Amino acid sequence: MIIPPQHPRYHSLLQREKLVEAFKRGIVVPQGLIAHGRGECFDYLIGERTTEAAKKAIEAAAAALLTARHPVISVNGNTAALVAREVVELAEATGARIEVNLFYRSREREEAIAEVLRRAGAKEVLGVGEDASAMIPELFSERRRVSPRGIYVADVVLVPLEDGDRTEALRRMGKTVIAIDLNPLSRTARAANITIVDNIVRAMPLLVEKARELKGRSEEELLGILKRYNNEEVLREALMEIWRNIEGWFRRGLTIEFPKQLPEGF
Ligand code: PTJ
After folding, report:
1. Ligand 1: centre distance to CA 149 (Å)
2. 207-264: pLDDT as tens digits
3. Considering only CA atoms, which residue is closest to atom 24 of ligand 1?
4. Ligand 1: which of 161, 196, 242 to mutate, judged by most atoms within 8 Å of the beta carbon?
5. Strands 176-180, 71-75: parallel, antiparallel or unpaired by DSSP?
6. By Cβ atoms counted within 10 A, which residue in 152, 239, 244, 258 is the most buried?
7. Which residues contact 160 (CB under 8 A, 6 or more apart)?
8. With a threshold of 0.85, does the pTM exceed it?
9. Is residue 229 helix, strand or coil?
10. Quick one: average pLDDT of 92-99?
11. SS3 (DSSP) at 16
12. Listing from the earlier edge strand, what are the strands of the sheet with 156-160?
């Protein structure tokens, strides 16, 4: 479907089209379309823009990835459909490895997602087939299967659009977890060390830019950013932003004003 760029919801519709297209190619699961709908709702409430709170989280995420010994970016169907190029750029900027990790795992999807990433420029993609031979303890979904060269040994893991169980399991393994989740109340958002409450399509390019900007900085400076960062505060700010937006709608009224008389010629 062709969406006219002047359509008021152009960007949102474009994301839907990308996901539907990826669904038809077996990259995104039907549940991924539902998950995106939930994300859209929260995006509406935060004003469909990157908040100051999200910018703080993005800076901390860049610092965490740059100071990590074994950083890994975990990729699922929705992430591959929406931001494959940015995943590769972020991996290049931070030295992170890329690993396919799926909630609804199948060999066909692993391969299809790895192919999307390779086409976007990835030289190596972990977590496909026999490579996903290590297990995350106490986790019962297919997401427990990880690469012994990737998530299993990672000290910092970026998990966009994650489920709560795995975030908690990764934390129990002592890893630093960075989440991207539009829902500040989700279990993932609350369990992660750093939560970027923003749409992945806005957050990822900003994260790449920040990582490139901070790359030359000293370890001391980067650790300073992490020390000052407070995730609880960032989640509170994200909720406050939603609250302020709702207050604004109350104040301004909810109806749309139309001209009382039709202009001449109608
Ligand atoms: O590809 P698979 O098999 O790994 O499956 C992926 C999904 C997304 C289906 C799976 O991980 C899942 O069920 O996720 P959840 O538990 O529904 O969580 C997804 C979270 O991502 C929700 O809290 C949504 O609000 C959020 N979300 C959805 N779209 C976006 C988003 N956050 C940021 N940007 C988005 N575009």
Report:
1. 25
2. 999 999 999 999 999 999 999 999 999 999 999 999 999 999 999 888 887 777 766 7
3. 39
4. 161
5. unpaired
6. 152
7. 74, 75, 76, 78, 79, 83, 179, 180, 181, 200, 204
8. yes
9. coil
10. 98
11. helix
12. 97-100, 71-75, 156-160, 176-180, 194-196
Ligand 1 lined by 199 (C-beta under 6 Å): yes
Question: Which amino acid residue places its CA nearest to atom 7 of ligand 1?
Answer: 32
Q: How far is the CA of 103 from the centre of ligand 1 (A)?
A: 10
- Residue 46: strand, helix, or coil: helix
User: How does pLDDT run across 109-157, given as a tens digit for each residue?
Assistant: 999 999 999 999 999 999 999 999 999 987 888 888 999 999 999 999 9
Question: Where are the chain's structural domains?
Answer: 52-230
**Mean pLDDT, residues 61-83:** 98
Distance 161 CA to ligand 1 centre (A): 4
